[in-house]
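Give me the fold.
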Amino acid sequence: MPHQQRRSTPLEDLDPELTNVSRKVIGAAIEVHKALGPGFDRDVYRKALCMELDELDVAYKLDHAVSIEYKGKAVGEHRLNMFVNDRFTVELMAEHRVIDGFDRTRLRAQLRAADLELGLIINFGERRLKDGLVRVLNPDKLNAMRGEDGGDYEGDYEDDDS
């Protein structure tokens, strides 16, 4: 089966404030990873990342509850690892493994449920943090903001500064 290439969304298509805050989070994660390296439990990285975000004055909530609806009725709730600036979610990991399609699909479902446009997966378990960093977009939210119909857009975006 041929590999289907993802369409990328250029950074210019996203809200500059959202891009700026997400870059601050990524920079903070890089600082944590430089200091600690891989090999610790997720909670160690979460506490260190919170310290960095506090220093940067970036607002966040831990274990933020999001209601999950089906056919207009609440059927449960999901807790986001970290909800940043009331705009996007950050999923933290500390495992030596590749972030795969299922991880992206799962986060995209969470973004849709929470009506958020962006989610980051940060895996501190990798030797190089950039190998454990993925940004995932909610195509429904982005298309609604652009005034387009949903289509089949499932793109992620990545930039070269991470």
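Residues 16-36 form the longest helix (21 residues).
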